[in-house]
Amino acid sequence: MCGIAGAINLDWETIPSLNRRLAVMNQLQIHRGPDGEGIWQHPSQHIGFAHRRLSIIDLNTGSQPMTDQGGNWLTYNGEIYNYLELRQELGYKNFRTNSDTEVILQAYRKWGMDCVNHLRGMFAFALWDESNQTLFCARDRFGIKPFYYTVVDKVLYFASEAKALLPFLKNIETDLEGFKDYLTFQFCLAGKTLFKGINELLPGHVLTVVNGNVSIKRYWEVYYNLDFDHTAKYFEEQIRSLLCESVDLHMRSDVPIGAYVSGGLDSSIVASLANQKSDDQFLGFTGKFSLSEDYDESKYARELAGWSGFELHELDITATDFIENIRKVIYHLDYPVAGPGSFPQYMISQLASKYRKVVLGGQGADEIFGGYTRYLIAYFEQCIKGAIDGTMHSGNFIVTYESIIPNLTALRKYKPMLKEFWRDGLFEDIDRRYFRLINRAPSLGNEINWETLGNYSPFETFQEIFLAENVGQESYFDSMTHFDFKTLLPALLQIEDRVSMAHGLESRVPFLDHPLVELAATIPANIKFKDGTMKQVLKNSMYNYLPESISHRQDKMGFPVPLVEWMQIDLNDFIYDIFSTKSALNRNLVNSKLILKSLDKENKFGRKIWGLLCLELWHQEFHDQHYAYRKIID
After folding, report:
1. 361 to each of 120, 130, 137, 263, how far by Cα in Å?
2. By the 8 A CB rule, do 434 and 480 touch?
3. Cβ–Cβ under 8 Å, residues 556 and 376
4. In CA terms, which of 200, 220, 254, 599 is 20 to 30 Å from 303?
5. Annotated catalytic sites, by residue?
């Protein structure tokens, strides 16, 4: 696991002080690779790569950036899990190292840009093809590994983290469309970031520079071509086979492996499988908030550890931890994204890094198998509509109100969401209904200076993704999970990458293996979501690998943070001071005076104050440090 960076002049002219620019990007990403660094510069000085290295596998891996001795150079971040199989398939007799880095170089020599379709893993890389004078960059299918880029004065810069690009911007400004996306979803859509001028290469896409022209295209898509010819038992067997294979591949390492264990279904499956396939060195890591049982699921993590027979390390996370670390979390994230779970995940990654260099996690299963409670809310309304209209059996996705009722206990803590969902009425088109479920902007009022944000509509971008052609419109369930797969999942993976790399820790996610994802997309919703039971087919498939207390759970919380309770006592002064600085009180987009007046009005599991707090800390960490970033390079 590493950090990559580079620069190319689009006019093929010399980049002044190229070595210095590459060194600056390396330094800003030093946490991603504390074990070494490298820089390559083309003799013409119009292109160069940088690399930070985190050593995981004790092999003859060679250094990066790496060359194939034929003029091609590569800087690469990630893990290619099928690199051993590719070495055989390539038939190349003269490998100089045992690394997956060299496998990518040789795969490119054989297959050209189509090499990405042969890679099974997580990756982001840039490859300079000397003979064709082409820059070829790629990001893995799901966005597990990051890739950001910007163009300033005819130079394209790229890096693993957006902060490494900040010294080259003339000003650090907020992207207003990205900002509007964040207020709506708490993440950005369509490759935008919160930094004006900085974009991310979308998952499953490649970026090329040929003759100074930058082009981006998709190389992989997930298609929801539903398979009605097979039974639930068939899919359960296929899931079990593919997931076991994926865990095997993800455990390729010469160092002992651990796992995040939240006590939920997904991380428990991964940890249980990994423990069975490892020696007695396997470790689990979990966190809790002892303040209340509403914020503590550690008993389930302990049950799994005892049932499976592995050692579990626990961390009791406190308000003091929040005060001491939340600024670090925002710094490492580059910009705010998703919910409060990034904070406890940062703390658990810090704990895990004391014992392991590689951990496995359960990220991705909710999006591919349907694990979010809001899907149940959406179908609850659909059942009511179907019962009234007499269309209970139209479409493969429909569940009956008789079958869904026993599962509604999962909504016990979601009454505020139900109230908001139905506040503006019922039975709209499915895209508008789901948008209302995930839209967080209505909770914001005059705290945001809306008139400054322009006419951009996040809903229109939402529709483009929600109603995409690769998803059959007969399935409400698939449309919902597809949107989350394309948008929320990359946001969560941004967190997964940053909070682990902040501590020199590599996080791997076995559910995000493309054979498994492609299979899941073909499973009809009435099998995935049978009778309104979330992730039913996954539960049935992996039943024998879990204690019943976990496989039958309906109350998974998703790692909520007791922010509201802490604000009443421990965090009151801390948060008040953040919004009371001179800079905070003079922001163009946010009214901190009104935020201060609403601090005591947040709902228990609300995310309004969380989102606004993260925005202000982001401004303080980056916008207010603009001159410091410019000074690094000047």
Report:
1. 17, 39, 27, 12
2. yes
3. no
4. 254
5. 2
